[in-house]
Each structure stands twice: as C-alpha cells, then as structure tokens.
Amino acid sequence: VIEMGTPERSVITTCAYCGVGCSFKAELNGDQLVRMVPWKHGKANRGHSCVKGRFAYGYAAHKDRILKPMIREAITDPWQEVSWDEALRFAADRMRGLQEKHGRRSIGVITSSRCTNEETYLVQKLARGVFMNNNTDTCARVCHSPTGYGLGQTFGTSAGTQDFDSVEQTDVVIVIGANPTDGHPVFASRLKKRLRAGAKLIVIDPRRIDLVKSAHIEAAHHLALRPGTNVAVVTALAHVIVTEGLMDEAYIRERCDWDEFSDYAEFVSEARHSPEATEMLTGVPADDLRAAARLFATGGNGAIYYGLGVTEHSQGSTTVIGIANLAMLTGNVGRPGVGVNPLRGQNNVQGSCDMGSFPHELPGYRHVKNADVREIFERAWGVNIDPEPGLRIPNMLDAAVEGTFKGLYCQGEDILQSDPDTKHVASGLAAMECVIVHDLFLNETANYAHVFLPGSSFLEKDGTFTNAERRINRVRKVMAPRNGYADWEVTQLLAQAMGADWAYTHPSQIMDEIAATTPSFAGVTYDLLDAEGSVQWPCNEAHPVGTPLMHVDGFMRGKGRFIRTEYVATEERTGARFPLLLTTGRILSQYNVGAQTRRTENTVWHEADLLEIHPHDAEVRGITEGGWVKLASRSGETALRAHLTDKVSPGVVYTTFHHPDTQANVITTDYSDWATNCPEYKVTAVQVSLSNGP
Ligand code: SF4
C-alpha cells in the first residue's frame, strides 16, 4: 500500500470484511483512495481496526476486476463482452423463457452477506415480486443459519442479545467454536482487555486458540473437545448447574416457561449427561467440565460468544439452543455484561438474514405462510406473494440435477468454492440453463455461468451493513462504480428488464421501504443514521435510537423457552482408513476464500493454508515440519504443507480454506445441520500421509 500525501477529502464508511463492522475514514486524493483510517467515533470499533480493514482494500482497483458485462450461449463458448442493455435483455429473456417452459418455481436467487441490506432486500424482492416464488437463499445458509433457528426458537429473535460495549461488564466469558483473535480481531482486543482486568475465560474448542495461551490471561479453562461433540459438552455443563442447584431459579420462574424448564431439568439431570459420561464421549476431563460449569454459574455476569465452530455441524442448531439454555439457566440474558453473541463471519450476515433472504421468511424473520405478513408486502409491492416456502441452496442444486430447477441469479457469492461437496455443486450448476453471476471477479462459479454482470465494491456504493451486535452502519460511496452501476442498480435493471416498475433513485428509498414493512426497522432512516452514527435494531417508536440490549423486560417471544438438547453423533465416523478428524478455521490476514485479500499488493498476506497436525501424529507418519502431505477423506483429496503443533490434540488436524488450491471443500462431507442444512464443515474423517506435493 502506498500512502500518497495529505488527502484532499474523506468519506466515513464501514469495513466490508468481518461482522465487527468497523467504521473508517476513507481518505482520497481526487478519485484515488490513499488511506483507510479507523474512525474514532465508530461505535463498534472506537478508533481501532485490524490489518484487513486498514490495508486490504486494494482488490477494488485490481486488474482482475471485470468491468464489462459478458454473455455466452453455452458454458463451453467463449465469453463475449456486450453492453449492459444487451446483457440484461439476454438474462431476462432466458429467465422468463425458463419460467414459461418449466414453471415459475424453476428459477431462483442467492444473495450475499457481503452486499448491503438494501441490495439484499432487492434480491429477495426480485425472487418474490418478479420471479413470483420464494426461491431465495443466502450464503448465511452455510454459516449462521442455525443461529437463526436456535435463537429464534428459544428467545424469539435471531440475533445477538447485547452490544460489544457490554463485554466491559462481563465477569465470565465462554468462547465456544470461535477464534476472535483471527476472525474478529477488534472485538478480540476488547475481550482481551477485559480478561486482563480480571474476567475469567472458558474456551470450548478442539484447538488451543490464541486466547487460551495469552500470557495475560490466568485461569483460562480450555475444554478441548473432540470435533462434533459440542452438544454433549454444553449439556454436561447444564447437568452440573442443575444437579448442584446452581441455576438462577428466580430468573427462570420470572422470565421463562417453567414447565419447559422442568422438563429440561429432568433431561439434563440424567446420569448419561454427567461429566464422567461426557468425558467418554468428548475427551474433556470430568473435573474440567465441573469446574467450568461452576465458574459460569457462580462467577458473576456471564456472556457466551460463539462462531462457526458451533453452527457448521450436523447438530449446529442444537448447540445454539444449548447455549441459549445455559444463558437462561444462569440468568444471563437481558442486562449489561451478559448474553448470547453469535460472532458473524461476514460483514453483513446479520443483515442478509434480517432482510428476508431465507426461502421461508420475509424481512424481519416472518414466515411466508403468514397471510397477514404477506399482505404487508403485497400492498407495498403490488404483487401476490407465493405462500409456499422456496428452495434452500442445497435443494436448488438437487433440483437442478433432477431437472426441475433451471435458472439462478447469484449475487456476490462463489458457491462453487464456498459450498460443500464441490462435485455436486458443479453438477447442479452445469445442469442449469441460465446462471447469472454478479460479482467483482470471474470466480469459480462463473465457469458455469451464461451471463456475467460486473459487481461493485463497498467503496462504490451507498447503503448499510448490520454487524454482529445488530448495529446498522452506513456504507457511503467513496468513488463512482468502476463498472458503471452499484449492485442495487444492477438488480433493479434486471427487474425492470423482466417487466417490474421499480424506480429507486437512491438506496435511502429502499431503506424507507424496509422501514415501512419491517417493524424492527420502523424507525431507521438515513437521516437518523447520519445523526447517530449508527443504531442497533429494533429501532422503532418504542426504541427511537435503537436497542443495545435485547430481552431486558422479557424475551421477544414472551417466556424464554428451554428445549432438550439430545446429543446425536455425526454420521461422519473415523475408522482404520480415515483415523483423524479434520476441522477448519481462518487466519487474521486472510478472508474466506481469499477473493479480496489475495488480490492485495502486500505479498506478506499471501500465506499458504497449512495442515496443523500434532507432533505425535506426524511422527508416526514420518511427517516433518513444512513437508508436503496428502489430506484425504471419503469425498476427495488435496495436498498441503504440514505444520507440527500441539495446538491440536492427537487425533485432530486443522487447516484454513483461504486459497483455491487448498480445495478444502473437496475434502468436506455433505452432512448438514438437521434443522437448517448448514453444512458440517467442521468435522471430516481424514487420513494424512506423506506426499510429493500437488
Ligand atoms: Fe474490518 Fe473486522 Fe478488521 Fe474491523 S475487525 S477492520 S470489521 S475485518
């Protein structure tokens, strides 16, 4: 990154990487962005940032950006550059033709958690109001969909309960299935500050993450469980709390359904959930389970932070429910310093879920089967909305292979790289007759596309992102879109080409429509966001400047709901051929599949994905530090360099998934969460052996 003197002007906007949602001052000379300075008034970051938000914006100007629309008759044909009019006409005619031939439910959309709330709202509106079906899904399907289900069932709303500031009043922190130091660095700094001030830490993770080894943090409990056994550990913690009478009975009686609690208490009290029985399943010593449970129940304000190590399992939704149970059991929801906090991976995972991207929910998490809710949108949009829930991403791909799903508009998401079972994704895409990819780069999914619509970066548009604490932050246009149109404009042009009468001239009008149709956003306007800097939803008449803490006077659903959390072992089993368990994560300097971070000028960031393996497992295989190994599963195989470390236990290996060459999703299975189909990325039985390289 070259910094180029005193800037001529600056624009306040929001980082487009992780769910912390840091505010930045983008400084420019002319139309050239010269520096991103963390904004001291940003309520999520308070003047701090990490390396990605501060420096990794070079991709927006990268030569790989595709700036002209392209079409082709068949995916074996070469791409042909065309005008926007021609590309949109081609796409619209194909999609309409498919609907005439195969029915209105034969096409659909996939939205992106990278895009703004306004863009996401428009894409699901395209499906419901123009395609006339509910075939809309989001990349949150493969990350936090179990959060939506689990917190919705227990608390009544699918979001974190408290703001980041609240951590400063927390006494005991559980971090489960998350690595904030790498995944959410600015929040991790605040958490470490609180831990240095004396808060206690319980980490539940197969890997010894950085927080555990921090020299400043004493008495950290690390429950290094076998991958895939989160539910058993969380239930065992509840067992200790209930059988030792450590629960907050007054809170439960006042705030929760007592009958459901009684049933749950009976369930968790069974001997099969005792620490000793759980040790056999999970590998976590019984004494450690008991000590952690006592600490969480008696140590003061308790808060739970979790990530994809919770959700990306066949029992992801069950673990989210178990986490909510633990918080209610100990009276730890509804005041500062306590709560349940999903750490969202992408910048706008929260927002993409809020905006109705799921095939069964309209904006604001309201079911499409609810005629009263449909009527609100039918009046606003002037259409009749299909009352039948649509297809999830894996169902779209299945239906494509079966021949009933024919066309897809995919905005800002590379499903061939990021979704599980790459071969199946490729088969599904190849079977479709119109795939429209709308992205910055010619990504892997575009190999199967018939239309490529150039996307715009976060620097080139207005809108909002909603971070992990429900904070709606403004994204402001720093420069004109290099491709000619912001993403929301492209979606509108496609809708118009298909006959819609949409006529938005600025994203603020889209937000006004969201506010008019969605109670939790009823008070949100761009004027309010400009005045306040940001607000946390619900923002409405009752909470005119937003809601930092949820469930203060009662749960959104009324009484909090305890639900049994029966542990069911994943179908993915180790055995003689595949004796090790692979789990995955991220590194600080890279982001997801690396489409943005790998396209920066700073080559230091181009670290390869490594396979972490315990020295004992390495030694018996003759594997040495830095040597090539073959990583093989029942699904496929790839080659990586080995890193020997006792961060992972014997029997467990770990890698990141930032580089296309790693092909982590060639290895992973197609098992998924029972409630939401979120893929089980975090548990794969593998064999590791010496290799000569790729
Ligand atoms: Fe961006 Fe997240 Fe880093 Fe903040 S912590 S600068 S939001 S990547």
TrEMBL record:
The residues covered by the 4Fe-4S Mo/W bis-MGD-type domain are 8-64
* Entry keyword set: 2Fe-2S, 4Fe-4S, Iron, Iron-sulfur, Metal-binding, Oxidoreductase, Repeat
Q: Name one GO biological process term.
A: respiratory electron transport chain
**Entry annotated with the keyword Repeat:** yes
The superkingdom of the source organism is: Bacteria
* Single GO molecular function: NADH dehydrogenase activity
Q: Is Metal-binding among the key words of this record?
A: yes
A single GO cellular-component term from the record reads: membrane
Q: Which family does it belong to?
A: In the C-terminal section; belongs to the prokaryotic molybdopterin-containing oxidoreductase family.
Protein name per its UniProtKB record:
Formate dehydrogenase subunit alpha
Organism placement in taxonomy:
Bacteria, Pseudomonadati, Pseudomonadota, Alphaproteobacteria, Rhodobacterales
